[in-house]
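Section 3.1: Structural characterization of target chains.
Under the original work plan, the team committed to producing a structural model for every single-chain target entering the pipeline before any wet-lab resources were allocated. The record below documents one such target. The sequence was received from the expression subgroup and is listed exactly as submitted; it comprises 121 residues.
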Amino acid sequence: QVQLVESGGGLAQAGGSLRLSCAASGSIISINDMGWYRQAPGKQRELVATITSGGNTNYADSVKGRFTISRDNARNSVYLEMNSLKPEDTAVYFCNAGGRLSGGFRIFNSWGQGTQVTVSS
């Protein structure tokens, strides 16, 4: 149906930067909200950042001023620029997207498989 493929995760040093990418593929007519979530060991999955089709953004307090979410509608992609990384940013990061599929006005809400981000102290 709709697949989200993430890239850009890996290992970074404290104070460093990483850029996460997520591309959606399938019979997509439009994508509404897109977002990034993360889950650290022993913790609940939490919202990191979201961006609407109109470009409105929302960030968790813990990442405000450090992370920037953006999207490229032509590529059905969402990005997360992570700067000034901290060890507490270490988590599995998941992308999410919802929207409409072609044919019959069907909707979708899909998740990526998750990508590990590790920040060393």
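The chain has a mean pLDDT of 96.
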